[in-house]
Amino acid sequence: MTGVIRTVLGDIDPAELGVTDSHDHLFFASKLLPGEELDEVEPARDVLLDFKAAGGSALVQWTPYGLGRRIGDLARLSRETGVHIVAATGFHRAAHYAPEVVREVVDDLARIFVDDLTGSTRAGLIKVAGAFHTLDDHARTTLTAAAVAHQETGAPIAVHLEHGTAALEVAGLLCDTHEVPADRVILGHLNRNPDDALLREIAARGTFLGFDGPSRANHATDWRLPDCLETLVGAGHGGQILLGGDTTTATARHEPGASYLLTTLAPRLAKRLGEDAVTAMLVANPARAFATSRPR
């Protein structure tokens, strides 16, 4: 299989993906966020319908294995709303799981990932995570398993960068050590560490660049985003940029929600960067980022 995007309802041509929220969560449950679980179907349906009404066509859920993905509900919601949904396999930072879960699965991660990507789960990407400013043993284990699964399936690897850090270390391990092509790697949360010189260095590696979670009061918020993106577009990296909402809590569903990408953020960026550049971030770039490559 090559050159397709695996959605929860089956494989589609990348040209069918359309306007895409490249990083979000309809369902998510972590022990780090007690009482803020995204585990109700009706609010998830409302998110998709609002996103569709704003012009959205596809949403990529980065919720990995063991954190409440609700694959069956994703498929039903996609069918009912007409919004393409791409689901994830993968494994987050250990802190999100009960210790016994980590012990039970850590030695079998590559097999779990491959099974999710090739079986009835219909996962379309592998989501793993770095550590804060480094790669700890857990990150190295999960990233290595992701590389093995990529080599067998061709699926893209999406990486949570803790507070936007350790991007170069992640790229080094995946692309240099494990020979994953750079354009099969998506580095998330780069907006949380808005260092222009560092962003240009990361972009030069050739990975996709995820800017997600707009308007989070505890992160570098939207006022920094146009400057960062203008720097990258001006340096020739506009074809690597992806935009997402990254809603991870019930409260955040309304602050500001996935549709904000299209109703507020995209028009603001278009005034600064031009319509064509923003359209690429929402349409052409996701179509390439989330397509499978030919397995080895």
UniProtKB/TrEMBL annotation:
InterPro entries: Metal_Hydrolase, Phosphotriesterase
Protein family: Belongs to the metallo-dependent hydrolases superfamily. Phosphotriesterase family.
Swiss-Prot/TrEMBL keywords: Hydrolase, Metal-binding
Protein name: Phosphotriesterase
Species of origin: Amycolatopsis melonis
Keyword Metal-binding attached: yes
Residue numbers bearing the N6-carboxylysine modification: K127
